[in-house]
Amino acid sequence: MISIEQMALVLDALPDPAFILSRSGKYVAVFGGRDARYYHDGSGLVGLYISDVVEKTKADWFLEQIKLALESGNLLVKEYELSNKEVDGVPEEGPQQPIWFEGRVQGLDFLVDGEAVVLWVASNISERHEMEIKLRELSETDQLTGLYNRRKLESELALHYEAFERHSVPTSILMLDLDNFKKINDTLGHHAGDKMIKAVGSICLSELRQTDIPCRLGGDEFVIGLPNIELEHAIQLADRLRESFNGELSQFHGEGFDTTVSIGVAAMLPADRSYEDTLKRADSALYDAKRSGRNRVVAGMPQYPPAVLQNVVAETFSLHHPGSLCPPA
């Protein structure tokens, strides 16, 4: 038969820290989690309240989880990030970076000082969390350029279309590809073609905003989502990018041809039923840019009758310029 003293030693040997917490957030007892490679010593928290040692927003979150566990009677599993610098009364010895925890919270069938209590076991899952982030990035990233891939582009444009539809937040789309790319591959080889594609990706990463959505669709085709940018400014940005691309790609000029970029531009319109309508206009504009001589920026407009088109343009302008009666001449 294990004695109470022996049971206390067993609990204290637990690899992960286990807290007995009251409904009001009092640290009733702390067991385990003594390995300083993974945890900080929380024994000094006993007798204190969560609201005493962490800032209010986080304290409220912890108290809400305790309440949910007690009221549901079920095991509650939550992931959260916490640093020892965010918790008063925790020593410096231990991990220096914030820790990602998986908290497993279970209500207990007894009271302490008249209060319901929970068992909260906190496991360090930082390595797993970092791996999940890396795997997610890999699933959303083009390996040659470091830009987003089609999967990420589609999910992001869907979100921005929803923001446009609900709140009239503008989004423009650029679609571009490299002029004479097949000749480059045939003349200089696929290695040179890959260098060109990387060069375009590098310029996108260095010159676009963090909120922009640069994507390589495949081959020499790229799409750039531009949240909070209307058509006029998108056209100006496209022309600046075209000049940057062309300057970088000039090293690949071959006999009888230049290596340049053509760009199609479109902005979301009220008549669009999804971001795909905008993307199709940008694609059509890119085709027009190629057909009309390459190395240029062309804006895509919807194929409406003139009277309808005038109303669409006026409606779009009024959405983004409230108080104006008509678009500027």
Give a description of the structure.
The protein has a five-stranded antiparallel sheet with strand order 2-1-5-4-3. It has a five-stranded mixed sheet with strand order 7-8-6-9-10, sandwiched between helices. The protein is elongated and about 90 Å long. It is built from ten helices and ten strands. The protein is of the alpha+beta class and 329 residues long. The protein has helices at residues 4-12, 50-53, 56-72, 126-140, 150-167, 181-188, 190-207, 231-249, 275-291, 306-320; strands spanning 18-22, 27-31, 76-82, 99-112, 115-124, 171-178, 213-218, 221-227, 261-267, 297-299. It is 43% helix and 22% strand. Helix 6 (181-188) crosses helix 7 and helix 7 packs across helix 8. The protein has two domains: 4-131, Beta-Lactamase, CATH 3.30.450.20; 142-320, Reverse transcriptase/Diguanylate cyclase domain (Alpha-Beta Plaits), CATH 3.30.70.
